Amino acid sequence: DLLLGASRLRLLSVLLLHPGPPLHMRALGRLARVALGLLQRELKTLEQIGLVLRIDQGRTVVFDVQRSP
Description:
globular, 3 helices, 69 residues, alpha+beta, three-stranded antiparallel sheet, single chain
């Protein structure tokens, strides 16, 4: 149930397939075609279940997938 939904799957797909550095929320939203409000809720959920990392870089916040050590 936690992983179902088109928006959540698009977000995870973008994060998993993106070869570059972690993505800023707006860039992630553009690539996944998800509106900002929904994007914030989905990222929070994915972070809570441990699939997404929220990384503070000074005054900027970026997101990446949680990778095994």
